[in-house]
Amino acid sequence: MLVEQKEKLQAVVGLVDKIAVDPDVNIDYFIPGVLVTDNADGNGDSGGPYVKFAYASDGQAAHIQHMPLTRSYLEKEPQDLANLITFSLERFMEEIDSRQYGAQ
User: Fold this and answer.
1) How buried is residue 71: exposed, middle or buried, by Cβ count under 10 Å (0-12/13-18/19+)?
2) Can you tell me whether residue 54 is helix, strand or coil?
3) How far apart are alpha carbons 82 and 23 in whole angstroms?
4) What range does the domain containing 21 cover?
5) Helix or strand or coil: residue 63?
6) Model's pTM, two decimal places?
7) Could you give the number of structural domains in the chain?
8) Per the domain annotation, does 27 fall within a domain?
9) Which of 104, 8, 89 lies closest to 51 in space, CA to CA?
10) How far does Cα 30 stand from its chain's mean position?
C-alpha cells in the first residue's frame, strides 16, 4: 500500500469514528496496513479492504453489513469517503429499522 493511500485511509478511519457515533452500532475495519479491528476477520464479500457495520437495536441480534472499499472509493478524498461510509451506515440502519418497526 502506498504511503499516500495509507495516510488517506487513516484519515478516513478517524473521520468516520468522529461522525458515526451511535451506541447501537459497532464499526469494524479490515484495511490491512492501516487498521484491522478484532471483529474484522477478512471475510468480506469482496476479498479486499472493507468496513463492517453491526447494528443491534432494542436488544435484538446484530445485523451485519460489509461495505467493500473498492478502487473507485479509494480514489475519493478522505472527507468524501468518510461521508459515503456514514451515509451507507445511516441507510443500513434505516433499512433494519423499517423491517423491525415498519415504514415510517
Assistant:
1) exposed
2) strand
3) 19
4) 3-98
5) strand
6) 0.85
7) 1
8) yes
9) 89
10) 9
| Amino acid present at 24 | D
- DSSP code at position 56: -
Are 82 and 16 contacting, i.e. CB atoms less than 8 angstroms apart?
yes
pLDDT at 103: 59
- Asked whether residue 103 is assigned to any structural domain, the reply reads no
pLDDT of residue 46: 65
Q: Is position 104 within any domain?
A: no
Q: Which amino acid is located at 61 in the chain?
A: A
48 class by beta-carbon count within 10 Å (0-12 exposed, 13-18 middle, 19+ buried): middle
Task: Establish if 52 belongs to a structural domain.
Answer: yes
Q: Which residue has the cell 451511535?
A: 22
Please report, in tens digits, the pLDDT of each residue of the chain (104 residues total).
678 888 999 999 999 999 877 888 999 999 998 988 888 777 666 678 999 999 987 777 889 999 999 999 999 999 999 999 999 999 999 999 888 777 55
pLDDT confidence of residue 60: 78
